[in-house]
Structure formats: structure tokens, C-alpha cells
Amino acid sequence: MDDSPLRVLVESLRFTRERTKIVTDVRRFDDAMRAIDFRLCRDPESGIQISRGGLYATCISFPDGTTFAIYYTFDDHQVVLESVRRDSLAFDW
Fold it and tell me: What is the pLDDT of residues 33-78, one digit of tens each?
């Protein structure tokens, strides 16, 4: 982790639409997203880079086996949540 300033987390319209369609337990998802927000705004390179274009992925896994893959990009000022998929790491950009 570097000493750069904290980044702002921004949801793309695509992320918001996908989240609305697939998340059934909003409180649980939001609680997990607070942890993701904390980590990514401080160290966005902690995810897995999945494209040379700067697309990264991280996951949220719950005890019941539900998994969400979170796809994002970032720069020096913000982390943009680009997409979310349930129970899959497959991404079709």
C-alpha cells in the first residue's frame, strides 16, 4: 500500500443496475461493501488485475456460499465500481 491520498468510491450506472437486479439481502451486501470500500479506497491494487486495460476484480463471499464478483477500475482519485456478478467470476465486458 502506498501513501497516496484516499480515493473516492463511485458506482457506475451499470454496477447500480446489476446490483439492483441480483442482490436480495441488501443489508448484508451493503455491510460487505463497506469493507470493500475501506480496502479499495486505500489499496485498489489489492484486487486481481484481469485486463491490461486496468480492470480489476475482487470478491465478496458469504457463509451460505453466495459469492459476488466486483469489477472495478481506478486512478489516483477514485475507484469506479464497474460491474457485479453473482456466483461467477466470468466477466463479459
Answer: 999 999 999 999 999 999 888 999 999 888 888 889 999 999 999 9
Q: What is the predicted pLDDT for the residue at 61?
A: 86
pTM over 0.90: no
3-state class (DSSP) for residue 50: coil
78 Cβ contact partners less than 8 Å away, ≥ 6 residues apart: 7, 8, 9, 10
Is 70 within the bounds of a domain?
Answer: yes
Looking at the domain assignment, is residue 50 inside a domain?
Answer: yes
3-state secondary structure of 70: strand
39-to-14, 27, 35, 45 alpha-carbon distances in Å: 22, 19, 6, 10
Of the candidates 56, 62, 53, 54, the one whose C-alpha atom is nearest the C-alpha of residue 23 is 62
State how many domains the chain has.
Answer: 1
